[in-house]
Structure formats: structure tokens, C-alpha cells
Write a structure and sequence with these properties.
This protein is of the alpha+beta class and 148 residues long. It contains six helices and three strands, in the order ααββααααβ.
Length: 148
């Protein structure tokens, strides 16, 4: 019975509706963290600095529909671009599905509960500082390793 198979298991990214595509996001907030790239090695480091528009409690963007206007370099994941973002966390549903891996039990689509990502302590809830409050010269001091 095809209806019993969740859409993310039976559809390719390009076959998903916009609503289905958006629902893949688990709401962890990790993509809203400032990342630093080593120019010599290409290695990407996460910081605990979040975009000034990320709500630290919900891990949601407060200006989501206007995010590109407010933050021109804010990324927009599309079915065509998922593979371009090698820095996506290993827990990211977009990355997992692109790598033919299953969604974890705590993912809201699996658990049916949008707070399950926070209870599983996979999100950045209450663990960030606004990047607007820290001078860029000090960002290296905020490199973290708990994201990965």
C-alpha cells in the first residue's frame, strides 16, 4: 500500500511538494550557525554564533519568508543544491536522504512531535549567542565541536 510509505521514503527530492520539502527540516537550527572556513584546507568549523534572526528558543528563523532580503548570503537549500553544501550536519534530513540514509527516530516527521528534536538534544536550543553581538574578529573564539 503506497499511502503507508512516508513521502520521504517513496519520493525523490524533485517529486516533493514545497510543503513536503520544507517539512524535511527538523528545526535543529544548525544551519543558522555561523560557520568559518579554513582558506588553506577548506575545512568548515561551526561556531555557537547564530544568525541574529534565529529565535534561540524555537530554533526557527523569525524572518523566514524574507531571510534572503535580510541576510543576502543566507542559504536556500533546493533539490539541486543539497549536494553542494558539504557542511550540512550529519543529522540533517536533507543530507541523510541525499545519502540514502533513514531519518532518525527523533526527527519530527518520524516522531510526530516538533519538539522531539529538542528533547533528543540534537538542536541548538539555548546554546547560541547572536552573531550580531560579537565582533567578527572574535568569531574564532566561538568555534564549537558539539554540533557534529
Amino acid at each position: 500500500m503506497i499511502a503507508a510509505i512516508p513521502f520521504w521514503q517513496r519520493k525523490h527530492f524533485h517529486e516533493m511538494t514545497r510543503e513536503e520539502w520544507e517539512s524535511l527540516c527538523d528545526g535543529c537550527g544548525k544551519c543558522c550557525l555561523t560557520k568559518l572556513e579554513d582558506e588553506d584546507t577548506g575545512e568548515v568549523y561551526y561556531t555557537d554564533l547564530a544568525c541574529e534572526y534565529m529565535d534561540g528558543d524555537s530554533c526557527q528563523c523569525t524572518v523566514y519568508s524574507r531571510r534572503q532580503e535580510k541576510v543576502p548570503d543566507c542559504i536556500v537549500l533546493t533539490p539541486d543544491s543539497v549536494g553542494d553544501f558539504h557542511w550540512l550536519p550529519q543529522t540533517c534530513a536533507y543530507r541523510l536522504l541525499a545519502e540514502d540514509k533513514p531519518l532518525p527516530e527523533w526527527h519530527p516527521l518520524v516522531s510526530g512531535d516538533p519538539d522531539s528534536v529538542h528533547r533528543a538534544q540534537v538542536s541548538v536550543r539555548h546554546r547560541t549567542v547572536s552573531n550580531a553581538s560579537v565582533p567578527e574578529a572574535d568569531w574564532e573564539e566561538h568555534i564549537i565541536h558539539w554540533v557534529l
